[in-house]
UniProtKB/TrEMBL annotation:
Protein source organism: Paenibacillus lutimineralis
Residues spanning the signal sequence: none
PANTHER family: AT30094P, SPHINGOSINE-1-PHOSPHATE PHOSPHOHYDROLASE
Chain segments annotated as transmembrane: 32-53, 60-86, 132-149, 155-173
Domain of life: Bacteria
Alphabetical keyword list: Membrane, Transmembrane, Transmembrane helix
Name this polypeptide is given: Undecaprenyl-diphosphatase
Domain Phosphatidic acid phosphatase type 2/haloperoxidase per the UniProt entry, residue ranges: 61-170
Gene Ontology MF terms: undecaprenyl-diphosphatase activity
Length: 208
């Protein structure tokens, strides 16, 4: 009971520290609002771009990252059944709430799970400069606290779940024959579609 209270106090104190930065440095608020709300679109575009480089290794990476996200998301929802809390702006006073959000269970952070599942997977497969993806995921996690919609514990739990699932998937799925087979089947149909498209365009150019 005492440990639970101490964790709760630390959780709130850390939240106040990060969230109050938005009051001290309001010129940074638009940046963190953008990161918290719209960086997900950059991630989606990046995933599509990487997939359509048509590099088999890149596609295995995206497939593994997507599986990691699905697994982490499910684990997150299950953990939310055993522990739940509303967003800070619901439970606390004087919260610097910068984005619109409906009242619901904020444990764990879905945004954090999404970004860390993909970004940490990218780092595992590519290493090197791909650490920038992890830094982006960290920024997203911090931004969710900054704008007042998640506690640090919501974000930390999302990180731990994502790191565990991404690491497990990285070491298991690329070696499975079903992974290689799935990619090969997809690429076979993709090549057929591209050939048909080229033939159609070629016939149109001849007729014109």
């Amino acid at each position: 009971m005492v440990l639970s209270l101490n964790i709760s106090e630390v959780n709130i104190s850390l939240f106040r520290f990060v969230n109050d930065l938005g009051k001290e440095y309001p010129f940074l608020n638009p940046t963190f609002i953008f990161i918290a709300e719209y960086m997900v679109f950059l991630l989606a575009l990046s995933v599509l771009f990487i997939w359509f480089t048509r590099d088999t290794d890149n596609r295995i990476m995206i497939l593994c990252a997507s599986i990691a996200f699905i697994c982490a998301f499910i684990i997150g929802k299950v953990s939310g059944v055993f522990h739940s809390n509303y967003q800070p702006f619901v439970e606390l006073t004087d919260v610097n709430k910068l984005i619109q959000k409906e009242k619901d269970n904020s444990f764990p952070s879905d945004h954090t799970i999404l970004f860390f599942s993909y970004c940490f997977s990218f780092w595992l497969f590519k290493r090197g400069w791909s650490i920038l993806w992890v830094l982006l995921a960290v920024l997203v996690g911090v931004s969710r606290i900054w704008v007042g919609v998640h506690y640090p514990l919501d974000v930390l739990t999302g990180i731990l779940i994502s790191l565990a699932t991404a690491t497990l998937i990285y070491f298991i799925f690329p070696k499975l024959s079903v992974t290689q087979t799935t990619i090969k089947i997809y690429e076979k149909y993709e090549n057929n579609l591209l050939l048909r498209f080229k033939k159609t365009m070629g016939n149109k150019s001849k007729n014109s």
